[in-house]
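Deviations from the work plan: none for this task. Representative record:
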Amino acid sequence: MQRISIDPITRLEGHGKIEIFLDEEGEVANTYFQIPELRGFERFCVGRPVEEMPLLTNRICGVCPEAHHMALPKRRMQCTT
Amino acid sequence: MSEKPKFAMYWAASCGGCEIAVLNVHEKILDIDANFEIVFWPVAMDAKVKDVEAMPDQSILITLFNGGMRNKENEEMAHLLRRKSQILVAFGSCACEGCIPGLANLSSAQSLFETVYHTPSTENPQGLYPQPQTSMQEGELFIPAFNPVLKTLDQVVAVDYYMPGCPPESHQIAAVIDLLVAVLQGKASLPARGATIGVGMSTVCDECPRTRNVKKIKQFVRIQEMTTIDPQLCLLEQGLPCNGPATRSGCSALCPKASAPCIGCYGPAEGVIDYGARLITAFSSVIDSKDPQEIDRILDGIPDPAGQFYRFSLAKSLLRAGKAAWKVE
């Protein structure tokens, strides 16, 4: 089975790879989109002070840090009201 | 064929903020384009890994490499770009000292998987974790193996220059671009190999306009516990754990100027071997007590010592250097 690898996918934030498998007629049989990236924010944010969260979570994505930065204060407001 | 020297930028375990910081030099980006041929930069152009592999060794003049070494692919790219580049710059806090993702080194890889793949928003009924190799009916699929700890770039390959910051400030990047162009024109020479570039040579405190006295503190306070913050007085002297005394200058003290304590993103100041050790020394010097019990009480005011003292630098610290987290737990 013929295989086309696009590695890395480009012009976006993040890491990814696309594997395309072609059948005997050259038609796409199946495609796999792989994201190999893991840093563990879900783990190391646990147990840290609430005021730290905006500092930590805006490092999830440097292209859209505002969204991650604001999500935490919003959540914190919900927790205290 | 272009005669211009070749430029590359790559991200390993990173957030993309370093790329944005480079783009934030605005029209200065045209100087890069005018003086360099950009051959590899995944966020900005379509060159692939196989294109880099096909380049002659040492054919890239300079590569700005950001992101930590979280998996084998990150390490393979570090080795590849080291081989292809004359100058490899550890660009940004992740590549220099691990940055925030380095806090994951307090947990084993297994506990990261157990948390990440079992969140309330994750659908994973079979409890699957990433495998380096998976057999599908069409063929084998590969993803890079996960490292037990996050490493810095220079823990994997030799690094020529360090450019810290989370992210490096755009005016510092612009200054480095100016320097590079001057070097190409024969008007300047490169700093000594191993130097930290695009930075100041002192601490954030030295750039901070706030007034420092000899006043000692009786308690640390969390920022949400403060009703007012004196706009002129040193934040540390107001009881806020501010990382300025240990942190390298270069950002113009942006955070303290905005009444937010320095978080330490520019890494250790010149000559500091272990960031946290220096910061502990600095904090100790402002504690106003000689009574061990009272000192303990004051120090208890810092709710997260590991995060406070090694927020950006855990992966590079002496504490855990060369130790894999999974051996400790």
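Chain A has two domains: 1-37, 39-81.
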